[in-house]
Amino acid sequence: MIVTRFAPSPTGRLHAGHAFSAIRAHDFARAGGGRFLLRIEDIDGTRSRSEHVDTILRDLHWLGLAWDGEVVFQSHRLPAYDAALDRLRADGLLYPCFCTRADIAASVTAPHGPDGPVYPGTCRGLAAPDLAQPHCWRLDMAAALARIGRAPLDFDDSHHGHIRADPAAHGDVVLARKDAPASYHLAVTLDDAAQGVSDVVRGEDLLAATHVHRLLQALLDLPVPRYHHHPLLTGADGQRLAKRHGAPTLAALREGGADGIAFAESLRRSGG
């Protein structure tokens, strides 16, 4: 059975770009007689707000989108993240890192990867790390790749074809943040597997992250879904719609009396 999901973070109000992605995931599931799930990614304790959850639910109803089953909250899944981290630590694949973003940006040995500066490995191999100090947990990428050996790290994407994953380009990624119990990479990979997501429908800005997710699936013996990284919705200036760019919110449109069903249809016609 086809199972898709929409997984917003309640750190602000949704805009048309979110709506476009939610509609794509919803319609893909419905066209195949499958299930469309809603997950709230709310483990960013410094930015997540309960009032944004309520707004997200109202926005989706306004668009005419209905999900199947109960809403899943990442904040209820912390034991699953802890168990995965414990497993990776036991396998010798994680190490604590005490560096700040400024430390990494200032490092002359930090090359650039898909998401900016790649961690130069400063804390890898520390003899006696003081875990009482604030720290994150990083995946030792070289050790992880050695663990899976020659196992193929491939995935299929309906827009980009068959892809050989290259997680090494991301370096030693963070799997547990200083300010959150799990990173996006770890949480989304575990959640999709736990919810039986067969088809991940999301924006192409997350295509690069899929290379890391494919590695985690191999390390944690998780199934590999099919991927559908769709083009991003852009504004009149050609830039992708984003919260930080002040894109109009769905709540503002809804509160202004706009017709949500008609708005959703306009997004469907746009095609990205």
Say how many strands there are: 12
| Percent of residues in β-strands | 15-25%
Cα separation of the termini: 26 Å
What would you call the shape? globular
pLDDT averaged over residues: 92
Taken in chain order, the helices and strands follow as EHEHEHEHEEEHEEEHEHEHH
* Fraction of residues in H or I helices: 25-40%
Rg for CA atoms: 19 Å
Oligomerization status of the protein chains: single chain
Uncertain runs are none
Instruction: For the largest sheet, list the strands in their spatial order.
Output: 1-2-3
Helix and strand composition category: alpha/beta
The total count of helices amounts to 9
How does the major sheet shape up?
3 strands, parallel
Describe the structure.
This protein is of the alpha/beta class. The chain is 36% helix and 17% strand. The protein is built from 9 helices and 12 strands. It has helices at residues 16-31, 50-62, 78-90, 101-106, 141-148, 184-194, 207-219, 250-255, 260-270, and strands spanning 3-6, 35-40, 72-73, 94-97, 112-113, 116-117, 136-139, 154-157, 161-164, 174-176, 199-203, 226-230. Strands 1-2-3 form a 3-stranded parallel β-sheet, with helices on one face. A 3-stranded antiparallel β-sheet has the order 4-7-10. Strand 8 and strand 9 (161-164) form a beta hairpin. Helix 6 crosses helix 7 (207-219). The longest helix is centred in the first third of the chain and has 16 residues, at 16-31. The two termini are 26 Å apart. The mean pLDDT is 92.
